[in-house]
Design a protein that fits this description.
The protein has 302 residues and is an all-alpha fold. Helix content is 70%, strand content 2%. It has helices at 5-16, 29-34, 39-61, 67-77, 102-117, 120-133, 139-146, 153-171, 179-203, 212-218, 222-243, 248-275, 281-301; strands at residues 64-66, 94-96.
Length: 302
């Protein structure tokens, strides 16, 4: 079956985010399942939101507004509106925004991730940890706990810790001296984390899973799914690097973080599958949040 690239991208993006771009007509199981090859590309959408915000913050921080001149023009037009004698000295009337404050950037980046995804993966993290901590031994009993709409204490703690780690780690980065390098990472992190999700679906999910994972497993084409998702990541990296100045040693430093992180991410999914007696949509979301938090923590430390 000839697969429509735009349609597949819309399906993947609407599945992983809350962006309203899902096709309105009937969706076949196979075409939904084959949208897995666009998971990394869907992650790139979130990365572009991050990138746009970073460049907006950098640009806005470079601007300054002379309020003295503004007051002078208003005074000429409406002399009765402003008592010019009360105006401050011109040097004290320059307005400048500091949007490159690391804490401000960290909070907004985490908010962007949460809003664009609708907190879907964060919800999966909380449900998964409720299931892990419930003390049940059977898969059926664990799923009952995970499907409960009320979030438990362990789920709340897991969600809170993940958000705190992401904000604190992002706030430790040196945006002034490593802006291009950090911008590349916030662009690629959503794509890489979704690529690790694809690997977990292809190699760690049972042959007969439940829910949406069943269709991904039924129609999976392992080699194609891996290669195409890698292509989206490589293309995004090549296009961005070609537009900015990033030295070779900086790129090597990034690889020294990315490679160990990918290995650790694989074992995060293995651990979740072991504790939950198998994978489902919640465990996939949980792994994504944990892995993104882990990457940011490694970045801040190393």
């Amino acid at each position: 079956m000839e697969f429509d690239i735009i349609r597949g991208f819309r399906l993947a993006t609407s599945f992983l985010t809350i962006l309203p771009i899902c096709p309105k007509d009937k969706i076949k199981n196979e075409e939904f399942a084959r949208s897995i090859i666009y998971f990394s590309l869907a992650g790139l959408v979130l990365g572009l939101f991050n990138l746009c915000f970073l460049y907006f913050a950098q640009y806005a921080s470079s601007l300054s507004f002379n309020i003295d001149q503004f007051i002078f023009q208003i005074n000429k037009l409406m002399p009765w509106f402003i008592d010019w004698g009360l105006a401050l000295a011109p040097e004290s009337l320059t307005l400048k925004f500091n949007l490159m404050n690391p804490w401000f950037i960290a909070i907004v980046l985490v908010l962007i991730n949460t809003c664009v995804t609708g907190g879907l993966h964060l919800d999966g993290l909380m449900d998964s940890f409720d299931g892990i901590a419930c003390g049940k031994t059977s898969r059926k009993d664990i799923l009952v706990v995970m499907k409960d709409s009320c979030v438990g204490a362990f789920g709340s703690m897991a969600g809170s810790i993940a958000l705190i780690v992401q904000v604190v780690a992002l706030a430790q980065l040196d945006y002034a001296n490593n802006f291009n390098q950090i911008a590349l990472l916030v662009l690629l992190l959503p794509t890489m984390s979704r690529f690790m999700m694809v690997l977990a679906i292809l190699f760690q999910v049972e042959t007969k899973p439940t829910g949406s994972l069943a269709m991904f497993k039924k129609y999976q084409k392992t080699a194609i799914d891996i290669i195409v998702n890698l292509v989206w990541i490589k293309l995004a990296a090549i296009v961005y690097i070609s537009q900015v100045a990033i030295s070779l040693d900086k790129l090597i430093q990034l690889d020294l973080i990315i490679i160990p992180w990918m290995i650790a991410s694989w074992f995060v999914y293995k651990w979740l599958g072991f504790k939950l007696k198998g994978h489902n949509g919640d465990s996939m979301g949980a792994g994504l949040v944990i892995n993104e938090s882990l990457f940011l923590l490694m970045l801040a430390v190393l």
